[in-house]
Amino acid sequence: MTLRVVVVYPDLLGTYGDGGNGVVVVQRAQWRGIDATLLEAPSGEPLPAGDCYCLGGGEDGPQLRAAELLREDGALARAAIDGIPILAVCAGYQIVGRTFPSADGRALPGLGLLDVATTKGTGRRAVGEILAEPLDDGLPTLTGFENHGGLTTLGTDASPLATVVAGVGNGDGSEGAVAGRIVGTYLHGPVLARNPALADRLLTWASGETLTSLEDTEELALRAERISAVRGTVRRSGRTGRSAW
Ligand code: GLN
Fold it and tell me: Which whole-number Å values give the CA distances from 168 to 111, 125, 130, 138, 186, in the listed order?
């Protein structure tokens, strides 16, 4: 059995390098001797069957197109019902929710796989490094960067992924959302390169295997550098949770 990791519509949702999340899941599987393959699924074709789906960020127009195509296609909704892990970043996060804003602020229907609703923020666009502490204490601090105008409110069927330490996230002090095996987040980076523990969480769900530990020296060095740079900025400026920067 080859583990199929699908990067959804990189031609529409590839603006922020989030396709790297699929690369990370496949590489971390292969490092452990788990047979895995990366499927880059273009928007013009039916979404292939997969064991893990990754959606990335994108601009408002391509984001709307991706939502329409995914609804017509139906495979991602079926995967969600089947408990296949889905990582959805930024525009992808907004798309898998109930509603997301058009460029002029109208509420557009999302796929409704995650009980969140996104509206257009009225303040500055959230752009910059973000640090957040996961609610799941099996995961360490999340590091990434964000670049979004939308703000997201969680419904009762979704739990926050993390609490914002620096940056904006959902806009209410929380960051991202989780329900079952669907994880939504505003973190780019790609988020799984910066947060290998989150990658391993998705890989565990996708493979059903107990994972051996890896020697993550370079990943840990990257994390340490980014986390201390952001904490240093917070200390110097006194900025916390909800401010855009
Ligand atoms: N267009 C969305 C927003 O601005 C998503 C942006 C992104 O994916 N980085 O909120």
Answer: 24, 10, 7, 23, 9
